[in-house]
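Lab channel / #folding
Pinned by the channel admin:
"Please post every new chain as: sequence first, then the structure tokens as a reply. Keep commentary short and put observations after the output so the thread stays searchable."

First post following the new format, from NK:
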Amino acid sequence: MSHQIEYLNLLLENWWAVFAGLGISVLLEYLGIGAIRKKATNFVENNPPDEFICAQREKSKDITDEVIKRKWDDIIQPGDYDPSKKLKGGGFYLGLLERVFFYFAFLMWAPELIIGWLVFKVGSKWEVWQNIVKVPPTANEEPIVGLISRRMWGSRILQGFLVGTMGNIIAGLLGVFSTLVLIKFV
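Reply from TO:
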């Protein structure tokens, strides 16, 4: 118990190092983690399958490739995603909070909090997975198009989930490492 109190006192005495480490954890989103996550989620090819293109051309002979691509993107992108806008959705803020959470959980050596959060994420993602990937096809949807679009969307979501979580864990650890280095050498 006395070691824990000494450690807490050390952190309180070096509050500036705690905030610096937290800042590093948060800024890592902009210094690489965000780019890695975007590359991982964009790795899934999202070109419309031939069946979808044929079905669209049957409906309208004058339809352009750009319109077909936009319709396909509307099917496989979650929500009202618009790549031309730099809006930050709920995932961005959840990632930010998760990095802060991991930073303090690692700093305070609270593995039960980390494990609890990861179990919660698995459970909630499992439920979402059941409601996204296993959505029954609509009446006017070709079966193969529905399967392909749900597989692509599910892969994109899963990759973002896994890479984002791992990136946040790494950011938390690097922030704690930075804090301890600052305390020791400054």
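NK: Residues 2-46+94-185 form one domain.
TO: also worth noting, The mean pLDDT is 81.
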